[in-house]
Amino acid sequence: MGILDILFIRPLKLRSSKKYFRERFGPAFFMRPAYCTDCNKKPIKVKDADLEEHVRAGMNVEDPICPECYWVMNVSSWERFRGGFLDGSFTVEQFEEWERKTYMNENFVSETLNQNS
Question: For the chain, what is the total number of helices (H) and then of strands (E)?
């Protein structure tokens, strides 16, 4: 990885990825999730979860969390993608494959899009 990759290639790929993900997954991709597709549950606040105090320490008590698997839903898929892509953890193709199941779930998309209504 050279300076050319960091300064020019990744920013270009990031811009094109944003357009690609908007077309592929829609606006829900850029919003915080409001549904856990693995557990088929709506989130609750961390403060309402049945967690031991040492686990809860350091967590924002207002963050949404899945009541079953305890997935903290405090960032959008886009935010997770940007962080991992920019540090070289994965490619666009790998991330798209991981997220496909989530965005094929109609409940996830509708719950996420309607969360502020």
Answer: 6, 2
DSSP assignment, residue 59? S
> CB-based contacts of 91: which residues, under 8 Å, 6+ apart?
85
Tokens standing for residue 70: 């305890």
Tokens at 82, concatenated? 């940007």
In three-state secondary structure terms, 74 is: coil
List, for residues 7-49, the tens digit of each pLDDT value: 888 889 899 999 999 999 999 999 999 999 999 999 999 888 8
CA distance 68 to 52: 14
Distance CA 44, CA 65 (A): 5
**CB–CB of 37/108 below 8 Å?**
yes
